[in-house]
Design goal:
There is one protein chain. The chain has helices at residues 15-21, 24-38, 55-64, 84-93, 109-119, 123-134, 179-191, and strands at 41-44, 49-53, 68-70, 78-82, 98-101, 104-106, 139-142, 150-153, 164-170, 195-203, 219-228, 245-250. It has seven helices and twelve strands. Helix 4 runs antiparallel to helix 5 and helix 4 crosses helix 6. It has a single domain (15-250), classed as Trna Endonuclease, Chain: A, domain 1. This is tRNA-intron lyase.
Length: 256
Amino acid sequence: MQISSMAPRWKWKGAEAKALAEPISKSVSELQLSLAKTESTGSLSSCNVLLAVEPEQAELLDRCCFGRLVLSAEKVKKWIQLSFEEAFYLLYILKCIKLSRQGRFLESEVEIWMYMRTKRPNFPVFFKAYSHLRSKNWVLRSGLQYGVDFVAYRHHPSLVHSEYSVLVQSGDSDRLRVWSDVHCAVRLSGSVAKTLLTLHVSGDSSREDLNLPTCLENYRVEEQTISRWSPELSREDDETTSPKPKVTNVSNLKTP
């Protein structure tokens, strides 16, 4: 089943044609080959990763919407700041970068996973949610300014407005447990022309399993869109009910 949402809001005439001519999946494949060829290495810190790349690779990263450019006077190399989710996706899923910490190369994916888990205990759940949408070619950016975890774009943000505000939930999450929270989240998303999308991440991994990135295979992601019922659309109905958010269960997001 596919999510039904508002039509994409392209930012300028010809943006849709440009997006169709340059699909995100193609750009990601080009990026993967380029980074793997040069064995690009990122420096791991307590909250993000700084990746040193060639200027043309920085352009590819921007086209694929991975990280943000860090301004510097250096002309030979460009520095890209990646979130933990972005860095681990490039490392573990695309296998096209390496990471170091304090000048020491980290050869083990398990060691990197454990470090990120130590800094952010909820990292496994958030990475599963991030990779779930990224693998479907949705572009994800931080949703901090909208009060959510991510915002999801059909293509590059320079071409189209984001369609979904994304909240990540797990079994021990207190989010959206009461209707007032749901109303607030839905109204905020609606006020910025987005549909609220919740990703429920669940699994049966034990505490020991969480020490390995292979625990991701035990997680499942359930997608739900929540939209506000509008009384203006039902003025001729005999039944009168108080407006409540409409919850739609879905199994698969529409791939851009």
